[in-house]
Amino acid sequence: MMQSAGMTSVSRRLLGRLRDVMAGSGSAQDRLDKVVKLIAADMVAEVCSCYVMRAGEVLELFSTEGLKKESVHQTRLRVGEGLVGDIAAHARPLALADAQVHPNFVFRPETGEEIFHSLMGVPIIRGSRVVGVLVVQNRTMRHYTDEEIETLETVAMVLAELLVSGELVNRAELVPVDGNALLPLRMEGVKLNGGVGVGVAVLHRPRITIQRLVAEDTDAELERLKKALTGIKLALEELFSRPEMRDGEHRDVLETYRMFAEDKGWLNRISEAIHTGLTAEAAVQKVHDDTRARMSQITDPYLRERMHDFEDLANRLLQHLAGGDDDQRPGAADLPEGAILIGRNLGPMELFDYDPKRLRGLVLEEGSATSHVAIVARALDIPVVGRVKDVLDKIEPLDPVICDGDNGQVFIRPPDDIRETYIDAISQRQLRQAVYARLRELPAVTRQDVRIGIHMNAGLLLDLQHLHDSGADGIGLYRTELPFMARSSLPDVAAQTLLYKKILDQAEGKPVVFRTLDVGGDKVLPYWNPYEEDNPALGWRSIRITLDRPAVMRSQLRALLRAAQGRELSVMFPMIAEVSEFVQARLILDKELERERAMGNPMPSRLKVGTMLEVPALALQLDALLPMVDFVSIGSNDLTQFLFAVDRGNPRIAERYDSLAPAMVRFMRYVAAKCAQYGVTLSVCGEMAGRPLEAMALIGVGIRHLSLSAPNIGPVKTMVRSLDIGALEAYMNTLLKSPDHSLRNKLKTFALDHGVVL
């Protein structure tokens, strides 16, 4: 404790002197020279050197006390080269009693550092970017303490302001130069939420400029931090009181956010930074930069996404500390009509800072479909394109932008013809939606009055609003894993029961098929450690996980049974590869049924049990399976992947095989015939069902139930009502032995010749 208190004293004294030097007169180089001399003296080091990042990721020695002066501006190291380069590459400190025996040590004879053995270095970080490295060295084999490292990190944060001021290195030197910022540009990304928006760019750069880094009064800074945290909590309570926040996964997202705001470890690190002599603002920024630097090395997608919650909190804390409130945050005022919000990433509350009525789209450099901001954006019906690399470097405020969420594309400063094409497409889309709305109450029947079941896919409570608007017959696939992924811990039986009851209530008697938990692969739960696999799509996922962890399945099935309360319940098990897996899952369900009966709880009026058919092996066991099930649903997405041995995430081969290939169509025909033989209902719930041409082919091979996303229901129903099913079935029979790569063009020709509306 005595040493810690002593180092805190050193840190405060040093920070006070640095403040005076940096606020003094002279050039930036003069002030930097004084700073390194001051650090060396205060930390009892024979050397203090400052390396500054230059263009091309090169670290240049800008100032030193103790090394040869002629090496200044001459000694350069690439990021990753030597110990200094290693510190920059990993954005983490390094302390070595004998640096010269380290495998990364690189000797630069012009510096004269061969006489110095021990080395301690820390990255100089501004935002999430390493802008330099600060190093101290000693002749003896000195063992640097954690407190000394902490002191040097604190000093480095103050020094960062000088390095990014533009006085030492022109800011323009580090701006990416590829591409002309004034030319039209199309950038590729990933669809996070569908839809198209045309508008102007609003840059989401919420960084607050910190004017005061060194504290005058530590107690006063701690009190300011406490008040800022209180302000955030009050803003959250106000948000929770809004009518639109009463239900839905977006409320769960903000509940998780509130937990982050109360994270004791995070708050303690900020308090500790204040005790070293920083202002509350500087302490928040330091802890955030440290956290981001550490988490940038993490590959787990969930943990990386949660970093954005902390980033949102840090920015919000800085806003409150600066004396503002949530209505004064950058970009919230004077938002133009038709704004396309551009950012690296957003926390879940930041989207609420902007008027959703004025937002036309959201473009992110990072993000994923399961990120909290994506869930909130879906609740607000805002198109989102994520993973658009370096978009902030290529765009200026109020640039014209098209956010094409349907295709994962962003057009920056589009030519007039492209802009007009999209505006026309939006108008046509609105007209088509009006036509589809008029079809809402009409049945999906072919010209011969053959009824086709059109059901909706859903995964969030907010999707239920589209069930009745779209005219769907029910929900053919409710993905229960999405609410699990929106939470920070496994929901208990009571929480699940409440959710499933709300879904059945809002369905108002229309059937709902609940698919049990389907996680693993690219769907990671935050409270389960991911299992490292070479090929997770073929690994420990879906039913394999829940059969291995039956308590999870039991709690979910128990919640579903309790939610039904006298209503019909349909349960579907995912990724069944062999009949024995279905038997095991059904046995768990039967035990839960017996348990609920014994407790006197009301039973479902009718229980239907089915399976997904995604693994081709199951199709070879249909004679054993079909007598056991009430229904089968083909998941065409995974089936295509497994049938053709193609990784859907690999861009080189993802589009190599067509879902309308003869093999796929013949597979569908075989399964449809088998299900008809046993009187088992068959549906398709993957992407094939949502595209009119593919849906037409499915109907042509005998499939009579389709489950698709809500926006696709209108187009598919329109196709069905224009279809001559007799002519289609006869034509499909002639195609099944085709050697072609795809039947797509032939089916398009059939549709054109027979007046089928696609």
UniProtKB/TrEMBL annotation:
* The reaction(s) this protein catalyses: L-histidyl-[protein] + phosphoenolpyruvate = N(pros)-phospho-L-histidyl-[protein] + pyruvate
Tell where it localizes: Cytoplasm
Q: Does the keyword Metal-binding apply?
A: yes
Q: Name any cofactors this protein relies on.
A: Mg(2+)
* MF terms (GO), sorted A to Z: kinase activity; metal ion binding; phosphoenolpyruvate-protein phosphotransferase activity
The answer to whether UniProt assigns keyword DNA-binding to this entry is no
Record keywords, A-Z:
Cytoplasm, Kinase, Magnesium, Metal-binding, Phosphotransferase system, Sugar transport, Transferase, Transport
- Pfam families reported for this sequence: GAF, PEP-utilisers_N, PEP-utilizers, PEP-utilizers_C
E.C. no: 2.7.3.9
Q: Which InterPro entries match?
A: GAF, GAF-like_dom_sf, PEP-util_enz_mobile_dom, PEP-utilizing_PTS_enzyme, PEP_util_C, PEP_util_CS, Phosphohistidine_dom_sf, PTS_EI-like
Under the cellular component aspect of Gene Ontology, which terms does the record hold?
A: cytoplasm
Q: Where is the GAF domain?
A: 27-173
The UniProt entry's GO biological process terms, in alphabetical order, are: phosphoenolpyruvate-dependent sugar phosphotransferase system
Q: PANTHER family, alphabetically?
A: PHOSPHOENOLPYRUVATE-PROTEIN PHOSPHOTRANSFERASE
Cite the NCBIfam families for this sequence.
PTS_I_fam (TIGR01417)
Describe the family membership recorded for this protein in Swiss-Prot or TrEMBL.
Answer: Belongs to the PEP-utilizing enzyme family.
Name of protein: phosphoenolpyruvate--protein phosphotransferase
Q: Which species does the entry assign this protein to? A: Paramagnetospirillum magneticum (strain ATCC 700264 / AMB-1) (Magnetospirillum magneticum)
